[in-house]
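Let us begin with a simple case.
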Amino acid sequence: MKILITPLFAALLFFSLPVNSAAADFSLSAGGGGLIGYTFTRYTLEGGNVTSTQNMDRLDYAGFLFFDATYAEFSVMLKNGSSTYQENMIYSVASLADGTGTGSERSIGLSLMGKYPFTINEKISWFPMFGAEYHITLMQRRQPDGNLVYDRSKGQLTEDRDKDGNPYPLSAWNSFWINIGAGLDYNFFGPLFLRSELLFGFRLPTSYEMGALEVVKNPPMNVSNPKLGGLTGTPNLKIAIGYRF
């Protein structure tokens, strides 16, 4: 149900507007604002005698700058997140202890969104959006319940080491997203306007998650053809003040 919220919102808004709404004139603008969002991960790794599950829920918050050329929007953000997680692995007939705890992360996000504005009246315009976003990880930390806080790129936890037993580099948590949604501009006066965007993002598996497939191919598990399935998604609300040149 969560996956459908933003696409349905965009579709309903589109078809509820007059069919003769004219596209906005070309203009350049820039501005900045804040983001709040919720990210969830639900993954299952299966193969041979191994079944592993990963559940993560994270509150995201960010500050960002955007640059707009009417039909395209580029933005740069500094994003933080605080999460809770639960992991479990069953190997052969033995169920290993559940792993639970909290985590935090920080990243720089770069996004490029295509958009097509429609003018509703002299004050309001709206635009469907579709595009991509890339996050460069700056920090990844995890605190298992009742334990210390670990820098995940140091490899102090077993799950943060690759098939050769080496720590994953911080870049293993870099991520690529596909975003879809819609936005609304409200013109205050002169060149100033308020922008709001509601987006839903779908994340591709990270190098860290794909590395887990290689880990279980090696002893002692020796899984020949493991499969990784599931979804990471995030609804985000962005609010910003912009200036048209």
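The second case is a distinct protein. As before, the sequence precedes its structure tokens.
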Amino acid sequence: MDFETEEQQIEAIKKWWKENSNMIIGGIAVGVSAIFGWQYYQGQSIVHTENASVLYEQVIVNLENPAVVNEQMARVNELQAEYSDTPYAGLGSLLLSKQQMASGEFVKAQQQLEWLASNAQQDEVKYLAKIRLARLLSNQQQIDKAMAILNESFPDSFKAMVYELKGDVLILKGDMSQAKSAYQQALSTSASPGRWLQQKIDDIGLPESKITTVKSEPSA
């Protein structure tokens, strides 16, 4: 299934984990039951996942409260250190990095996204982090680093977002021809293109002085 926005990706990740977490935990437990014993391992796995869930919920509850941002950072750091085998570490880092970007803490946001790109257990979280990292780098005029990320291999469900962002970065680089090609690829791989995509393609056909400021779909 293709997704057109980061919000859809995140909701799909949450839904997938909710539907499959018990099966995953059970499958892992079966594999080690001969060594540790089913009952003990099942109990420990459930407690481990529940503890991660509690930390993640605390991050969500305080997401809009700048007075406790240090506490949020501590909780996310704990998720990364102790619960990186659960999806809550990745989701917590995504939420925190979004808050950091919104408050202008770009260096800290970049660190969160780089951790995710290297350590996230779920591929969906990892690829989403790479897209956000490329966007952040391009906004910081680190064009070559952003393009290096976008030129990596991505699953089909991410390609429309990748091509559109690649077009945005190429616009910043001044390469209008390649930007238009990237936007057209985004259009051809998108099941329901964002409302700005066709406008971006049309604008490239205008004199450079009339090209509309690049607009991106809101991030999650």
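Residues 106 and 140 are 9 Å apart (CA to CA). Confidence is low (pLDDT under 50) at residues 32-43, 207-220.
Keep these points in mind for the review questions at the end of the chapter.
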